[in-house]
Amino acid sequence: MRILFTLILSIIFIGCNQQVSNVDSAEWSGTISVNDAVMTYDEMVVAFASGHENFDNILHSNVIATTMFYNNGRVYTNSWYDWSGTSKKTGNEVKLRGYCSWGWEGDKIISVYNAFDPTQYNQN
Predict the structure, then answer these.
(1) How far apart are the C-alpha atoms of 30 and 49, rounded to whole Å?
(2) pLDDT tens, position by position, 40-75
(3) What residues form DSSP beta bridges with 59?
(4) Residue of 72, 114, 118 whose CA lies nearest to 96
(5) More confidently predicted of 48 and 87
(6) What does the DSSP assignment read for 66-85?
(7) Could you tell me which residues come within 8 angstroms of residue 116 by beta carbon, excluding any fewer than 6 positions away?
(8) Predicted pLDDT of residue 5
(9) Vertex 45, ends 76 and 60: CA angle to 5°?
(10) Left, alpha or beta for 72 (phi > 0: left; psi -120 to 50: alpha)?
(11) Which domains can be identified in the chain, with CATH numbers?
């Protein structure tokens, strides 16, 4: 499960940054929110992986990411992306615009926030 999370982060960051990164194998202890629902790391992995039960050809495209250093010392990487997939139930292609933010403390991610409008996702 940690591999899936690392893979998702890697896909998003590879397009933006070609640096070598260290992988932390410690247990996740940060905060994760998806559309304002707070969840555990394992719940997040299950939730995102379950998309493959209902959709084929899932793609993340048009990824834009930027890291912001605020004057209060806080650091966030913000990412906007397009998500698309073909509904296995209806055959319709669903397209969503999403946003994700990672809060940093030193070289560790301490918070993850992901948001998207789930209306079309849930209807298909």
Answers:
(1) 20
(2) 888 988 988 888 999 999 999 999 999 999 999 999
(3) 84
(4) 118
(5) 87
(6) EEEE-TTS-EEEEEEEEEEE
(7) 35, 83, 96, 97, 98, 99
(8) 45
(9) 65
(10) alpha
(11) 2-17+30-123 (3.10.450.50)
